[in-house]
Amino acid sequence: CIAYFTSYAAFDFYQLMPQGMAFVIMVGITVVTVWQALSYNQQVIAFGGLVGAYFIPFLLSNDTDNPAFLFAYMSIINGGILYISTKKDWKLTYYAAFLITWWIFFEWSNQHNNVVIQLLFSSIFFLIFTAAYLFKKLQLKSPDDSWDQGYLVVNGGVFLFTGYLGAKGYKADWLTGAFLMYNVLIYAGLAYTF
Questions:
Q1: I need a labelling partner for 174 at 20 to 30 A (CA). Which of 12, 46, 66, 145 fits?
Q2: Distance between CA atoms of 52 and 1, rounded to whole angstroms?
Q3: Residue 145 neighbours by CB distance under 10 Å
């Protein structure tokens, strides 16, 4: 927390470094934090590092709207969650990443109507969180519980809802139908695989 705040203060309060350098430093802090969490086998360290990682773009924002960068960055963070979920069964970190990601994405989707960004990144987030769940179940052999089943339903529901809103906002019925068919193909592929 001190490292994040010091980097933020150096950038924002004292203008000691440019935005890009502050971003790279904060991402480095996140990587070191996750590495330490895995080394010390402490979920609380990973949780702190990953929650901090989600707030970096908002701390360093200069009020420009660049959703492609924001969501690409979040996809990288969620890839880290996927990696951690293959190594540890840390549900708090896993669920926090899930909630923060979909909350930020849903808030942005409510205020903007960019069908390409909505469909692309809702698909990426959905696939990352589904893959994290599957890796966790297959590699760690952890049993299903009601939280896991609820997680799958919410993940699929949010994906369907945000993608549907994006396709509907484009005002093309064929795109809405194509998105729903895309959902069917994803679930058919998962069912066939298992």
A1: 66
A2: 8
A3: 10
